[in-house]
Amino acid sequence: MTPSPSRQETPGRDRRHPFPRRAHRRRGPGHPAQGSHRGPRRGRPRPGRPRRHRPGHTAAEPAAGLAHPGRRDELPGDELPGVHPRAEGIRLQEGRRARRLRTRESRDQGGQGGQGRRYRGAEGGRVTTLAQPVLDYRLLGGHQEGLSFLDSRGVTGGLRYADLAQQARRAAGALSARGVRFQDRVLLPMPTGPAYFTALAGCLLGGFVPCTVVSPPNPEDPRSPGMRQFAAVVSAVGPAAVIAPDEATARALAAIAGPVYLTPAELDGDPATQPAAPRPNDLHHIQLTSGSTSAPRAAALTYAQVTANVTALTEAFELHRHPGGDRICNWLPLHHDMGFVVALTALHSGTPLDLMTPIGFVRDPLSWLRHISERRATITSAPPFGYRSAADRHRRTPLAELDLSSLRQAHVGAEPIPFPVLTDFRDAFAPHGLDESALIPCYGMAETVLASTMSLARRPSAELSWGRVKALRLDRSELHHHNRVTDARDGRPDITVVACGRPVGGLEIEVRRPDGGGCAENEIGEVHLRGDSVMAGYLGPDGAPRPVDARTHATGDLGFQRDGDLYIVGRLKEMLIVRGRNLPPYDVEQAIEAHPDIEAGNSAVFSHTDDSGEQVVAVVESKARGEAAARIKGEVAMLVRQAFGFTPREVVVVRRGRIPRTTSGKRQRAKLRERYTAGELT
């Protein structure tokens, strides 16, 4: 996870009152508009499709509003916040859906717009059945609370939900006026802050499809890894627009052809008069997930799928039981699915949301807990390394004035969960009022929007069971080398695995053998997830989602079930999970092989799990020995740290030919992992 840069921190900021007095709008009649930035065009417009009008030119049709032919866009009256009443109990029949698709096709062929790709459906011909209303951001302004933005010292700003709703209407109108059409994709390479939420809410209000991504750290250099990755994202997502954080970044990103490049200043347009009413099969957002940096994998998620998961999270967070008494505090970046979807849950429920910058957390992990203490936050979420960092810092520099008694739920997920991290955090902060039942292990992924399972049940107190945490101590050799679940025995190496709980949001779990058959309890297999939260599909080369068979996602994770709980013990895939971020091993190997003493193909990277979590190990083939080998180890670790922001647990230098390969020359990382754990690599 690459933290987003934060603005300079200023001592003495007020931690309690983030909302300033309402200021007069800076722009008004006669104020010069900012010019938009546009990359070079890739070619002529497609037949029958006009070019997008440039800012300052007269469009063929006015587009300040967002009324769409063939749609009913009446504004609702006094309904529940975050839902649309007409969607209650929606069950789309084939005939009705066919008529709507024909209407949408007619609209897409005749509407004014630009070069962004147009897509008619996200469900691959399937009918979506939705038991609850879909999320409706037109009702955001009815909430009383808002967003607060913090750094490691205190509050840096705030935005009430009512003000966000007004700004979102102007942003939706501005995007529509720039030629962005219903269901067009919009990239948001922006850091956490008010401008990001204005852009996000404007997209959701206007029926556009946001995709939050990392802003390249060196956009001025088109050959930098960040710009190469951003170009791959543009190619994969096919956005009609990109909203950059500032003009300089917009100009630099505009070197990549295709979309129109805008800044937050250009989103202050005429308010959208008729925001779009969402429908279950409309795309809600796109979440980048696993895949290489040159070919990112993008999960397409519909309103029905996001609604199912956000509703499940609202229930799991017990927000309905504590109306007006909850506050969420997070530091995760918003391009991360956990950070993004928890923020959506706050917007949907009207819960106050405190957002730290990731760099603020990295600088001072205890500032996260200090904000929870001072602002009486009740809910937070983080990967295991966040809890480990806070506990480690507290041991080195204890924070005496800390009161965590308000914290009801602290979700732990996004990467394998080491049992010692949970016990260390509990023991470190129990003297400061932390309830041990606040810690909740979870399992999830972007392909199910976010949450798949949560350990919500209270457990009996025992050596490996307390609060909502439960773990098993298993025979390490039987697990890693024979793929068998065997309870640990005296005198043999063991490993502790944490229960991730039971499915949420109507999801179902099936653990399958390689032949596709279902596994019995305590039998290891690949975890499959089925249900309403499963994505529409990954975006294909044509930009449309590839349908998911039988609404079932094969996760690539190895696990087993016992007493209804899911336990994750490894992966079929070779994907690395580092601080909640998925990294293909070949991307890391490519960075390693930039070393002048390491030839192409002479490195391999894998991960293995021990009691301290998931560890990344790099193996390189070289003739070097002694001091030369030690130098290579240090330089390889530095290359990985510079490229990806983490340091391998170990770099092993082996002689040529020690990395196992197939007959076709492919690196066998799983076999290499087995040799490493068996102590056979020297």
Describe the structure in your own words.
- The chain has a domain at 574-681: GMP Synthetase, Chain A, domain 3.
- It is of the alpha/beta class and 682 residues long.
- It is globular.
- The strands form 8 sheets. Strands 1-7-6-4-5 form a 5-stranded mixed sheet, sandwiched between helices. A 5-stranded mixed sheet has the order 12-13-14-15-19.
- Helices cover 26% and strands 21% of the residues.
- It has 15 helices and 29 strands.
- The longest helix has 18 residues, at 627-644.
Name the structural class.
alpha/beta
Strand order of the largest sheet: 1-7-6-4-5
Distance between the termini: 31 Å
Global outline: globular
Please give the count of helices: 15
The fourth-level CATH homologous superfamily of the domain at 574-681 is: ANL, C-terminal domain
CATH topology of the domain at 574-681, anyone?
GMP Synthetase, Chain A, domain 3
- Oligomer designation: single chain
CATH architecture of the domain at 574-681: 2-Layer Sandwich
Number of strands: 29
Describe the secondary structure blueprint for this structure.
Blueprint: E1 37-38, H1 94-110, E2 146-150, E3 155-160, H2 161-177, E4 185-188, H3 194-206, E5 209-212, H4 225-237, E6 241-243, H5 247-253, E7 260-262, E8 283-291, E9 296-302, H6 303-316, E10 328-330, H7 337-349, E11 353-356, H8 358-363, H9 365-375, E12 379-382, H10 384-396, E13 409-412, H11 419-429, E14 439-444, E15 451-454, E16 465-466, E17 469-475, H12 476-482, E18 494-498, E19 502-503, E20 508-512, E21 525-530, E22 537-538, E23 552-562, E24 565-571, E25 576-578, E26 581-583, H13 585-592, E27 603-610, E28 613-621, H14 627-644, E29 650-654, H15 669-677
Parallel strand pairs: 2-11, 4-5, 4-6, 6-7, 10-11, 12-13, 13-14, 28-29
Antiparallel strand pairs: 1-7, 2-3, 8-9, 9-22, 14-15, 15-19, 16-17, 17-18, 20-21, 21-23, 23-24, 25-26, 27-28
